[in-house]
Amino acid sequence: MNLEDVKKYCKAKKGVTETFPFDGETLVMKVGSKMFLLTNIHSSILKISLKCDPFMSIDLRRDYKAVEAGYHLNKKHWNTITVGEDLDDEKVKFLIDISYDLVFKGLTKKEKNLLQSNNASSR
User: Model's pTM, two decimal places?
Assistant: First the structure.
């Protein structure tokens, strides 16, 4: 996967926006008002930071060289993944899905309903 593949995969999900809230190089993918993926668009090596279940994070960091504690993030809940290292594309997509789902579940009921109604009206 490359950066464009990651962006395309994320933007296909309900309620996702692409933002640069910190600076001109840190891409943040949000569902609703909350971020679920961060990456530096100028880095020569694609690394993405994703939210993850803390217990799953322990196993991922043990089993994959590509998975490290989240860079400048809460290390209990975030991992930084070097894309293309020892995780195949399907595993990366799976981890993106987990991050998206965890963040979506944490949205307020009002925000979830708004995203779901926007999705229904765009069909």
Answer: 0.91
Residues 52, 98: Cα–Cα separation, whole Å: 7
Which neighbouring-strand residues pair with 16? 31
Percent of the residues in the chain that have a pLDDT greater than 70, as a whole number: 96
Measured N-to-C along each axis, helices 89-106 and 3-11 cross at an angle, to the nearest 10 degrees, of 40
C-alpha separations of 46 from 50, 105, 123 in Å: 13, 27, 33
Catalogue all structural domains in the chain, each as residue range(s) with its CATH number.
Answer: 3-110 (3.90.1150.30)
Between CA 46 and CA 5 the distance in angstroms is 11
Task: Output the 3-class SS for 21-86.
Answer: CCCCCEEEEEECCEEEEEEECCCCCCEEEEECCHHHHHHHHHHCCCEEECCCCCCCCEEEEECCCC
Sheet holding 67-69, edge to edge: 16-19, 26-31, 34-40, 47-51, 78-82, 67-69
